[in-house]
Design goal:
Number of strands: 17
Order of helices and strands: HHHEHHEEEEEEEEEEEEEEEEH
Strand order of the largest sheet: 3-5-10-13-16-17
Number of helices: 6
Radius of gyration: 23 Å
Largest sheet: 6 strands, mixed
Helix content: 40-55%
Distance between the termini: 59 Å
Strand content: 15-25%
Structural class: alpha/beta
Amino acid sequence: MKPFAKDQSKNPPPANWLDRLLRRFSRIAYGLAVLLMYTLASTALGLALAPVLWVWPLLHEWSRFLPGPLPWILSGFGLALCFFLFGLTLLVVIPVYNWVLPTRVKPFKGGYYTIHALPWFLHNGLFYLVRFTFLPFVTLTPFGVWFLKAMGMKIGRHAFINTEYISDPQLITIGDDAALGGSVRIFAHYGGAGNLVIAPVTVGHRATLGLACCVMGDVVIGDDATILPESVLLPGSRVGTGETWGGVPARKIDREEMEKIKAEIRGMSEALG
């Protein structure tokens, strides 16, 4: 069996000479892409740190002439302030990078080592700089919603997003009054056996995604639907309007079965009480 980097049977034809070059020298191309991402990340983080490097010396200078423990208190306050200044600046810098660079992600199915995957790689690499640093501090604030929209995520009016575990925001649509519970994982891609599939995710109006459920690429959740906590919606799932799905993998749960589950839960609670 060929290594998946050399097996082109699942790939679309090369888009151009650069795509052919990337496929022929896949490992080298991948290493260069990683180095490029590190370089971009360094410049983005550096720009976000620039205001901090300006503010911190001023705060430190002012604190020198204060009596007693006040210099230490002011320094502690200044460091905390600088952290949030850095984070808020990063929320602006990253969308600008995402807009300027070739990060327009499109649906795709094929190998990882193609030019089609490069925008997806750059888009998520930039997004993760915020996701793993500052996004948890603004998830339930207007700053968090603004950042997700600036990165291309389509978010309806009054949508409630209580999670930072998101990937591929450009390909995710959240409807009006939808609710994403804590630690919901939602991403518009999946892979395996040498295949990378990039496919959009749609969450309908007033849909509810329970605590820590997982929504994979190529999933459509209809209006007023409910996904139970800890459930996993596999690729290709189509949740109808008003339906309730749950389990691993998630499946449709009809009204009678749901009432039986609720009765069993009430029975266990009464027995424990």
